[in-house]
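Hey, can you fold this one?
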Amino acid sequence: MQTTLAPEYQGTPDGLAAEAILRKCVHCGFCTATCPTYQVLGDELDGPRGRIYLMKQVLEGAQPTRATQMHLDRCLTCRNCETTCPSGVDYGHLVDIGRKLVDAKVPRPASESVLRWALKEGLPSPMFGPAMKLGQMVRPLLPAKLQNKVPVAQPSGAWPSREHARKVLMLAGCVQPSMAPNINAATARVLDAAGVQAVIAPKAGCCGAVKFHLNDQDGGKAAMRANIDAWWPWIDPQRADGARVEAIVMNASGCGVTVKEYGHILEDDPHYAAKAARVSELTRDLSELLPDLVPQLKDKVRTQDKLVFHPPCTLQHGQKLRGGVEQQLAALGFQVRVAFNEAHLCCGSAGTYSVLNPEISYQLRDRKLGHLQAQATETIISANIGCITHLQTGTDVSVRHWVEVLDSALV
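Sure. Predicted structure:
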């Protein structure tokens, strides 16, 4: 796609990056066929091709409008279009740039600005945990819409105490320890059973995705730098081999896709570019460890569980990891299947999307649950805290992280 940048964007990092991405697009429309918002709304401007045209216009000097902003806001950033695109258009990075440029020129209504500020500051805040505990205490008294955002409190179980020569870092995350604490503990127990010790760096916090995708890119980058500083003593190449971890493991695919992109996001930072690249190089989704763990766990698993797997967009489209969870769990004796139809489609969670665009989000949730069609004897599993809590609001069937199910099956 031929693009002539407006003078204000010529030679700028955002302008150059966006132009390089736009030149790959041949406006074929394959992306439209797999875009969740286009499937729901049927509007060309609510599909990747239409949004690319809108961003191209802005980059060429057109004044963006509130409608431009709305169409970009409606994008789930599921990156399904990247999986579909035959030309390799890096749409996820392009829409980050487009939102940044549009928000700089289009003011938001006060109520919308306040809500977005509350989300980006509240979710990664140390106060989120106490607030969630309070919400869980009064959950039966809350309106249905708020109950959907406050999962029932769950115990986490014991954290393993054994030391192992093999060690990995694990990011606790910002919301997961409060909303579903058993996921982290189950991860540590499964790794422990396979002879691997999970270590959490105390000063590591939110991966940065919440702020970054709510267009506080500076705030998101600050969170990324803080994590790099917290992890660096464990991954510094100058540190003795026996004291280093072998990987940084993510059990929330939404965090994983972000941390894997630290190298890209901070590539222009002279102080952090090299460190960020190393972090991205060492980052693994938990499912990527499964092929190595299965031989260690095979004789320790007793199960006849039937599972229905929803692969999060951040796993199958963002990280390009497809089929691994199903294949490796099957090797451990689980009966695993995916949705009967549209397994590639987003469930509508998408970070804060379910709060900011609830109508579209819940339509996609119900569509996804209809395709999963879980029976009473089956458990729905996923790999991201957002998908798990979002899907659970629409069904009585248990929705869990796959590592919790694996942990429960250990003997």
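Residues 221 and 265 are 8 Å apart (CA to CA). Let me know if you want another pass with a different chain boundary.
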